[in-house]
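tl;dr need the bound structure. longer version: we got a ligand (zinc ion) that a collaborator sent over and nobodys looked at where it sits. i said id run it. heres the input, straight from their email, havent touched it
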Amino acid sequence: MFNKTLRAHFPNFLPESEFIKKSHKALTQMGFTAKNTIPCVGVCRDEITHSLIDHVERKWGASFNLSSLAGMVFMGKTGLGAAQAHSPIENGKERYIFVVMPHIAIDADGVIGNCFRAGRPAVSGACGALMKFQGELHKDTPNFAYDPLDIEQSLLEARLLPDLTDKKPDLVTLTKVAANAIVADLEVLIEQQVDTATSDYAVLNGIQIHGPALTQYVHPNSLYAVVNGERHAIDLA
Ligand SMILES: [Zn+2]
């Protein structure tokens, strides 16, 4: 049932290791190397997202942390500026790779949102932040008031609410809306702050999927590199 659900909702999925391996191969051909590039990763704070960071770091070295709840892009100009300032410079050029995505779990029975965690007998969920938002949306009188003791969750809800055409979305829909918002918000910051005359960069955006027995997949959403100011699609073939 897991495979059927995965294929139905995320038809372009591939194992997480393959996603990183293939994108690494494509980016290497465009001049990005572990030596001349800083990898920047924005995923949910959830510990089960760490496998993706680990795969990135095995290929690209230590990563700059862009993460917040659900993988939302809240590091702002200051956060992006720090990542830029930490990039290697090779022949006057900086290079950045941005791996940014939300996540979702699917259990062995194909139930979306369900996952199991080491040491906890009861079923758990991912993404908990998106599920909390979804729960609020499905209330008769939702409350999206800013809570200073819940800053990231408040920001997440305020950011995603206007992007929802269906105000009572299922979790797959909500996660896909989040994936699009994440890449859109990153692109606004890049547009403001990255000089493509002196910097090359790549965007690897998708949805991280947690399957049964610690399996991990990525459904690609938006993958491209900008090299010498020209945009190129990243082919994962
Ligand atoms: Zn999460």
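gonna send this back to them w/ a short note. The chain has a mean pLDDT of 97.
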